[in-house]
Amino acid sequence: MSKQLIIGDIHGCYDELQALLDLVGPSEADEIICVGDLFDRGPKPYQVHQFFTTHPNTHAIMGNHERKHLRASQGKTAPALSQIITRWQLDEHYKAVLAYIETMPLYIDLPDATIVHAFWEPGVPLAEQREHVLVGVKSGEEYLYDKYERPWYELYDGDKPLIVGHRDYTGVMKSMIYQDRVYGIDSRCVYGGALTGLLLPDFRLFSVPARKAHWFKIRDRYVKNGM
Ligand SMILES: [Mn+2]
Questions:
Q1: 195: CA distance to ligand 1 center in Å?
Q2: Which of 99, 122, 167, 169 is most exposed by smallest CB count within 10 Å?
Q3: Hey, what domains does the chain have and what are their CATH numbers?
Q4: For the segment 40-70, what is each residue's pLDDT rounded down to a tens digit?
Q5: Structural contact between residues 117 and 36, judged by C-beta atoms closer than 8 angstroms
């Protein structure tokens, strides 16, 4: 039977992605699914894009960083620093990455789990969840907190376990499991934490340490050089 490896926010951390794949050792038939935020802030967005566009059985969900790229490219918002740096890193490949981002779904619903980038609103079917909630836009997070005044994951009411990225719920760059119902697997690789994978159908966690606190180095280099 084929398995699914769900991977947390990669943020351009291609070397750690490879290390995680070496550790887990998925077969050709296994699916590899990232929860989103694939490119921004890390050192190797192009290699991550190549991986997801050339390997069979790979999928990625739209994260708030992908949404920002789309909206900036459509003139709806100004790109933030992390998008400006990613554009500069990708250079002539940026268009192809944007085209890939346009194909990314807001969620993936597997037999054993539902996967979204960020949040969930109780009482709302998956297909009717608000985009800014699923993707993790600030306004989506504020909307949930104003309406429910509790951490959203305590109210999760979907019919199978939910897997998300986007936030470090532990505060110590580790994954969170809430009542075997919500799996938060963003362990902050690009800030020097770890890259986490969750292997289904067994819900087994794997993790590899970040090689560096990539984002701080990249940001400082970019700002210093004025590029
Ligand atoms: Mn995110």
A1: 14
A2: 99
A3: 4-225 (3.60.21.10)
A4: 999 999 999 999 999 999 999 999 999 999 9
A5: yes
